Amino acid sequence: VTKGFRAAKNRLAGKSELTPELVDESLRDIRVSLLEADVAFDVVKKFVARVREKAVGELVQTTITDASGQKRKVSPMDHFIKICHDELEALMGPVDTGLNLKPKGQLSGIMMVGLQGSGKTTTTGKLANRLLQQGRKPLLVAADIYRPAAVDQLKVLGERLKVPVYHEPGVQPPELAKRGYAAAREQKCDVVLIDTAGRLAIDEALMSELESIKSNVHPDNILLVCDAMIGQDAVRTAAEFDRRLTLDGFILTKLDGDARGGAALSIKEVTGKPIKFLGMGESMDKLEEFRPEGLAGRILGFGDIVGLMKDFEKVVDEKKAEEDARKLLSGQFSMKDFVEQIRMVRKMGPLKDLLEKFPLFGEMTEHLNPDEKELTKIESMYDSMTVKERLRPDLINASRVNRIAKGSGRKPEDVRELLQKFGMMQQVMGTIGQNPGLLGRIPGFK
Ligand code: GDP
Ligand code: MG
């Protein structure tokens, strides 16, 4: 998927000067990469023009200021990547992840709209969960009356979250919304979340129903829920919803999948409305506030390093995470670190989640395919190594390979394979580590 971007990086690697020709060639690669990531054509054009202007205009600049405010020398490749990254961020900004909510105790409303299957109902639950954590008292209104299962789905979520769900069979959605507000007042709730119906494609009946709901209750927020997987179609959908309902922002869902999220860029550019949240999974806690730096990295295809580090921080303390990151990215980590990382990563949940955030791993996932069975195997061999071997795997010669194999009940080939994978991991990490543009984005990394 990231061929285009990788091609640009290869083109720029080792070059000492960013000539206009080199910029143009690299931008052709990036263009392909962005189109593959579902960024709309017009947006790509605009992006490319901006990057060209900056990259060619700043030929002499050889230092950048990183996240910690330090100046550092950069190669033309870093420079080019940084310009791309910053321009993407600029296209997605300014960041505005806030909701229009009245002070606690006063009733506010959020209306969720979007196509069928985009994740409205799920996201309604996730938002309620988030509001609960902020000390609000949400009430959900089930206003998708066309699919009986839709009401039940919301009720199940409400039960799980211990949040009241309002619905009355036989009542039309605009009236349901109105009564939902009344129910919220009665039950001393302070946020109403209206889960509306969707269609497979935009149609007039749906749009006018949504308009009636809007004019009946005047929700403080109208949020469009968009599936990141639908790619370019998202743009047309978003434009039409915005034209009819005047959106306050949108939420991009299913970013835990393969979608690179270019749709977010397109929607932002076309509607001018901010991206509020990203849906990162089916469960109620998988809603993240939008951060442009993470998404820009993902769209460009070099992985969300900040996000990766945040995941690390959840299982280890911050200082340890920083140390680990430093070690990992310097390529100077031992077999011991390697296995410890794998163990830690297992605590975080499926490795897949993590690897997806890190497309550079993509190339090696087929080699390093750490499913449960594989991990058990790795650990057994690791357990059979001496402390010295764990720290200096380069010392492991043929007779040591045989001893480790025997000790762990594995074949010598298995041990050699592990050593090879480890070597590859070391190499990949070292490559990432050599890119100061990326390192500067990790908080506290010097
Ligand atoms: P609605 O028709 O717009 O209400 O969509 P639903 O909320 O029913 O979601 C449709 C499907 O997408 C369900 O299977 C959800 O579990 C799934 N879904 C919603 N959000 C996400 C997400 O962020 N990630 C993933 N992987 N699945 C999601
Ligand atoms: Mg639904």
Structure description:
There is one protein chain. The protein is of the alpha/beta class and 446 residues long. It folds into 3 domains: 3-92, SRP54, nucleotide-binding domain (Four Helix Bundle (Hemerythrin (Met), subunit A), Up-down Bundle); 108-291, P-loop containing nucleotide triphosphate hydrolases (Rossmann fold); 305-439, 434 Repressor (Amino-terminal Domain) (Orthogonal Bundle), CATH 1.10.260. The protein has 21 helices and 10 strands. It has helices spanning 3-12, 20-36, 41-57, 76-92, 120-133, 148-161, 173-186, 204-217, 233-245, 262-271, 292-300, 305-315, 318-330, 335-348, 351-356, 359-365, 372-383, 387-391, 398-408, 412-433, 436-439; strands at 63-65, 71-73, 108-113, 138-143, 165-166, 191-196, 221-227, 249-253, 275-279, 287-289. The chain has an 8-stranded mixed sheet, with helices on both faces. A two-stranded antiparallel sheet has the order 1-2. A hairpin with a 7-residue loop joins strand 9 and strand 10 (287-289). Helix 1 packs antiparallel against helix 2 (20-36). The longest helix is centred in the last third of the chain and has 22 residues, at 412-433. The chain is globular, with a radius of gyration of 25 Å. It binds guanosine-5'-diphosphate and magnesium ion.
